């Protein structure tokens, strides 16, 4: 399988916050935003591997600023690294008040997807080529983030997380 560039997976989603998307404070509900983020990041993963994917995990998300009713939501998703059958996707999310010409950051997050065969078995995905400085940085950190989520998910022993342990030993 030919490795693919990170940029080839770039997915941009734009949504408008409507009344049905908001909580009692008139802000976008966190669950609705996470749903849109799930779709944007799944599309980025599918662009990378050209196969159906499932969400394997969602890392912690901190909502820095509420997004108001009538504002626009921008989600940018890109694959940071591909492992065997799994891919980590990084997302940046902004809100925008078009009337005030004001764009503000909402959050950043990492979702992990696994490519599956028609029989629902994990299947290998192409490797990823990071190009820009930011892509290189995200690529390097992905190994440690993967180890954290596999430890938390009970799928890896802390002793086997070599790169993560090295952070604390040096
Ligand atoms: C994700 C899933 C396919 C993993 O299947 P599995 O039988 O545990 O497969 P494996 O242990 O062989 O792992 C397959 C890959 O998943 C990754 N993975 C498994 N659990 C993970 C987790 N909690 N976080 C991140 N990656 C995970 C493994 O690291 C592995 O990646 P790799 O091939 O790149 O090394 C399976 O647990 C599943 O189908 N979960 C439900 C997915 C779903 O329905 N999502 C929507 C939410 S309702």
Explained architecture:
The protein is α+β, with helices and mostly antiparallel strands and 170 residues long. It has one domain: Roll (Thiol Ester Dehydrase, Chain A). Helices cover 28% and strands 31% of the residues. The protein is built from three helices and seven strands, in the order ββαβββββαα. It has helices at residues 30-49, 133-152, 162-169; strands at 4-5, 11-16, 53-58, 72-82, 86-97, 102-115, 128-129. The strands form two sheets. The protein has a five-stranded antiparallel beta sheet. Strand 5 and strand 6 (102-115) form a beta hairpin. The model has no long low-confidence stretch (mean pLDDT 96).
Give me a quick take on this structure.
With 170 residues, this protein is of the alpha+beta class. The protein has three helices and seven strands, in the order ββαβββββαα. Coenzyme A (COA) binds at residues 54-57, 83-86, 112, 114, 122, 149-150, 153, 155.
């Amino acid at each position: 399988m030919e490795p693919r560039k990170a940029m080839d997976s770039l997915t941009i989603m734009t949504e408008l916050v409507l009344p049905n998307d908001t909580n009692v404070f008139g802000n976008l509900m966190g669950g609705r935003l996470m749903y849109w983020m799930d779709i944007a990041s799944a599309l980025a993963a599918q662009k990378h591997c050209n196969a159906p994917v499932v969400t394997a995990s969602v890392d912690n998300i901190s909502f820095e600023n509420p997004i108001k009713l009538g504002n626009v939501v921008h989600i940018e998703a890109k694959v940071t690294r591909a492992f065997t059958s799994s891919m980590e996707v990084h997302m940046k999310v902004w809100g925008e008040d078009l009337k005030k010409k004001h764009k503000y950051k909402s959050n950043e997050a990492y979702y992990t997807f696994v490519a599956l065969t028609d029989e629902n078995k994990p299947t290998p995905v192409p490797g990823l080529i990071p190009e820009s400085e930011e892509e290189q940085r995200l690529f390097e950190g992905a190994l440690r983030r993967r180890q954290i989520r596999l430890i938390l998910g009970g799928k890896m022993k802390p002793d086997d997380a070599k790169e993560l342990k090295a952070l604390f030993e040096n």
